[in-house]
Amino acid sequence: MIERNVTYASGEQKKVYVPLTDICETPDTYSLKMEVPGAARENIDIVIEDDELRVTVKAAAEDTEESLKYAEFGSRDFYRAFRVGNEIDRNRIEAKLENGVLNILLSKTEEVKPRKIQITHN
Amino acid sequence: MYNYNLFDNMFQLKGLFDDFFRDGTYEAASGMPPVKIYSNDDRVIVKALVPGIEPEDIDMQIIEDNLMISGEKKSDYTGDTYIRKERRFGDFKRSVKLPYRVNTGTVKADLINGVLTITLQKSEEAKPKKIEIN
Predict the structure, then answer these.
(1) pLDDT tens, residue by residue, A79-120
(2) With 50 as the cut, is the pLDDT of residue A23 above it?
(3) How confident is the model at residue B10 (pLDDT cuts 50, 70, 90)?
(4) Is the ipTM value over 0.95, yes or no?
(5) Beta strands B115-122 and A29-35: pairing type?
(6) Cis before residue A114, ω within 30 degrees of 0?
(7) Do residues B67 and B95 lie in contact, with contact meaning Cβ atoms separated by under 8 Å?
């Protein structure tokens, strides 16, 4: 688990986990797969603002009354921000959570999609 | 495809947030999967982080007071072009030494949101015993 100190937009400073992420591109979309084990749907916040895509996962409270004996990971938020340009259609962003992996699908704007150019001849 | 980004020339933003397309890729840590162990008088609970792994791809075994978690994290790569690849796939195997002997007959395992929770009952010998004074 990779840790990092960040300052949230609210000004709050925190030590967070950086979710490992794969990003792939198709002619029409960008798709992100982020590993956020333990994240529940209601604790995930995805915001696109200006040129930043921000993903925050609030750490869930410990749900066991048993006492902790050993730990290789703690109860921390996941946070990662990506710089994105105007190539992303902000009205068409889909997200789904599957087995601890958050999938975010960003659609490209029409302007940046590959286009076939017809040769006109007379 | 990358649009000219004004910020590139203005600030050193590396470390503040990641560029969608360039550098700063994180390496997955080894020691997969990371675990946490809890216990009380009767039970031992082991939690392991296994995002992206299907229940049928996980095997668990108890050998004396060791819990073995093994399996395969199947790749979900598509044929599309990757601009960032940080996640790791493949076989994993982890042995966890339990703090107590457990009853191998009553093991329960749940996989929720990529977290594997294994609940083990302590064996009778490992449970605390109140000693009566005659």
Answers:
(1) 999 988 888 898 889 999 999 999 999 999 887 777 788 888
(2) yes
(3) very low
(4) no
(5) unpaired
(6) no
(7) yes
AA letter at B73: K
CB atoms within 10 A of CB B31: 10
pLDDT, residue B13, reads 42
End-to-end CA distance of chain A: 63
**Which residue does chain A place closest to B42, by CA atoms?**
A66
What residues of chain B lie within 8 A of the CB of A82, using their CB? 17-20
Tokens of B93: 């195997």
Locate A82 and state its tokens: 């990506």
State the pTM of this model: 0.81
Q: What confidence tens digit (pLDDT) does each residue in B65-85 have?
A: 899 999 999 998 888 888 888
Nearest chain B Cα distance for residue A119, angstroms: 23
- Give every CB contact of residue B22 below 8 A, 6+ residues apart in sequence: none
Distance between CA A100 and CA B87 in Å, rounded? 13
In chain A, positions 3-32, which contact chain B (CB-CB < 8 Å)?
18, 20-26, 30-31
SS3 content of chain B, % helix, strand, coil (to 5): 5, 45, 50
